[in-house]
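hey can u run this one w/ S-adenosyl-L-homocysteine bound, need the structure tokens asap thx
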Amino acid sequence: MLTIRLAPGRESRLQAGHPWIYRSEIARIEGTETPGAIGRILDHRGKFLGQATVNPACQIAGRLLSRDEAPIDDAFFERRIRQALTRCGRSASGPDACRLVFGEGDHLPGLIVDRYGDLLVAQILTAGMERLRETILEVLRRVVAPRAIYERSDSSSRRMEGLDLRKGFAWGTGETGVWVQEEGLAFFADVAAGQKTGFFLDQRENRQVVRRLAKGREVLDCFCYSGGFAVSAAGGGAASALGIDLSETSLAWARQSAERNGLAASCTFVSVNAFDQLRAFAREERRFGLVVLDPPAFTKGRDALEGALRGYNEINLRAMKILAPGGILVTCSCSYHVDAPTFLEMLRSAAVDARREFRLVELRTQAADHPILLAAKETQYLKCAILEAVN
Ligand code: SAH
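ok here u go:
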């Protein structure tokens, strides 16, 4: 059995509820260091703290699975997954899509499971969960009873864990194109070809906010991907909704969704670089009543934070400039290295540069089915600020 002994004083974060053990916090490893093996975590005096998957090659060398001594087996996963299904914003069946397992937020670090109707999409991100893959798939089949499980273990972060990328049906087969139902609107998603697991489930509640605010407004949805915000805005009675994105493939899905909801007349999707287009709109003095900014994470590491903030500043500044009087900016960041205070500070400085004043209507976050551990701020990665131009 693998045993990890922490250096003196390094147990307090774990005891406060955070699930990570950094490599630098480990004093000694006893036993065979197979990447991803389960180890007993002890403080420097030998007191048991819990069980974790251990990958000493990674900076986050341990991820806590449990705080008791019960074996990490089939029954463990069944308990964990059944509990996860009861959490806010989730349902184990039905036509709506939702996240069923959100890694650390559900005490299953390294595992993501999304449900698209009767199709599950699983993402295994760590060597620890990779070793438990067969058990996890078996428990998901038994507990959720899907028609198939598609695996999207193709995130490049797997390479840091020493894992290859994998993508395809893990169990069952069938269509990978699905229709997501959301508050009476339908959205097309392709779980094989789409980003992440196919659709941005984390923005579900923010789409509803945009839908409510969009009525009668001319809406611009930047980095629109498959048109989640634009189609929601049109569904809420926007005068028009223009979605822009670099990816032609995702724009085709967006058009398909607009069509399916009978909203094709008010929706337009154009393939263009959002940075260039925002600049062009500013030059043309074009104005919008509501602008959505939901760019990809500009940084995956802490090192690139400054460059990322410059990127955020630039698009927010430009978006602020093209808002009509009283216009609304819905601006997001999904990079967990940019925390909420930093994000707001960036918005303040962008507003100064744009020479406009705003009210912060609301500071929102990810949908409730992406649970946030109070003790682990990294589990809160999405910021969504709703700003209203004062004049
Ligand atoms: N708002 C979307 C998710 C956005 S994901 C939703 O709610 O579903 C980020 C998107 O940004 C991707 O679709 C990617 O193609 C696009 N993208 C990345 N860089 C871009 C750029 N410079 N200009 C326009 N789109 C870009």
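The CA atoms of residues 29 and 89 lie 40 Å apart. anyway lmk if its weird
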